[in-house]
Write a structure and sequence with these properties.
This protein is mainly alpha-helical and about 200 residues long. The chain contains 8 helices and 4 strands; from the N terminus they run H-E-H-H-E-H-H-E-H-H-E-H. The longest helix has 27 residues, at about 80-105.
Length: about 200
């Protein structure tokens, strides 16, 4: 996927400008259902837009990883979670394209491609380990991610890194695992998924 600067700005504007203009840009939850705190969402998207347009200070710089990792308090009558998450996905995509263009300009296309290949190989080396041994396990008295579910996703990701098919970035973003005693350590699995998302956004 190749996007121009105008396209990336339009992507981010679609996610942020409406929020700045109106508190009804996202649907609200009803009754006892909780959603994201509107003020927190509005503030983050405004900060993201300023960063994207280079209007931020150094302390306020936002990256694609920051968008992926952001979390908001849950309140009654808040913004519905799914529409906000979808908007954040578009914002992350826009930042990833911008960061890719900056990296290519700084490193050169060949060096950048080699760097992404090296990143992908690190992930593949981890996924090449035997099933049930791909990540550290928590103790038998603690809960971690269910082994067979993580291994299934790992196999699909390995396939993607091998031939570019079988899984989308949206699927990796939304993956969720059930818990089991003695399961995989959450932090390790989450870190690998973040690395896979970065690779996928870099090459698409």
């Amino acid at each position: 996927m190749t996007l121009s600067d105008d396209t990336t700005l339009e992507q981010l504007s679609g996610a942020a400008t409406d929020v700045e203009r109106s508190h009804d840009a996202f649907p609200r939850t009803q009754g006892r259902e909780k959603g994201y705190e509107p003020a927190a969402v509005d503030a983050f998207l405004a900060r993201a837009r300023a960063s994207f347009e280079n209007a931020q200070t150094d302390d306020e710089t936002v990256s694609a990883a920051d968008v992926r990792d952001v979390s908001f308090p849950l309140v009654r009558g808040g913004y519905a979670i799914d529409p906000v998450d979808a908007a954040l996905g578009r914002v992350e995509d826009a930042f990833a394209v911008q960061e890719r263009q900056a990296a290519i300009a700084r490193l050169g296309a060949r060096a950048w491609v080699e760097q992404k290949r090296a990143d992908a190989q690190v992930v593949l080396d981890r996924l090449a380990r035997p099933r049930r041994r791909r990540f550290d396990r928590v103790s038998v008295v603690r809960y971690g991610y269910r082994l067979e579910e993580v291994d299934l996703v790992a196999d699909k990701i390995a396939g993607y890194l091998a031939d570019g098919t079988g899984v989308t970035v949206e699927q990796v973003r939304s993956v969720a695992f059930r818990m089991q005693r003695g399961g995989y350590r959450e932090a390790q699995v989450d870190a690998l998924l973040d690395a896979v998302i970065e690779i996928m956004l870099a090459v698409n």
